[in-house]
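User: Predict the structure for this protein chain, please.
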Amino acid sequence: MGTPQQLSARVVARVGESVRVKIDEFAIAHGRKPTVDEVMELVAQDPVLKALVPRLTMKNVVEAALHGRTLNPTIYVFKPSPSPAQAAPQQRAAERKLAVALRFLPAGEREHYQAEWSGEMQAMEPAAAAQFAANVLLHAPLSGMSLRFAKLFKRSAT
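Assistant: Here is the predicted structure, written as structure tokens:
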């Protein structure tokens, strides 16, 4: 996702005000207080709020606004996701690391672990996937040895 940068208390207050306005507008239109999920949908439709604050942090802002609390002025904003051209080298590097890591595993186990690790990496940002693949590669020799010993001694590898 990128390096977090701390926002000022003034920006945090403005974000909170914007969310409170959306809550008030919803309450007037529907005659009831919105749920957190409904406010999250309203916020997702606002391009400025959506770009300014990550989803998990925004959920904290929404919950604070719904309950009339003030939020701690430490909100982090992240750099936008890399473009496909920038992400492609990271993705290829992650796939290569994963391919090398699979070579340490017994042949019968490779397909299972490749499907599992590839699925995990697809759900991640390219930089996070590259870090995940590096971690898998770091632990692959020991994992392969454990799986081989487990098969040799007819025990489950846990």
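The two ends are 33 Å apart (CA to CA).
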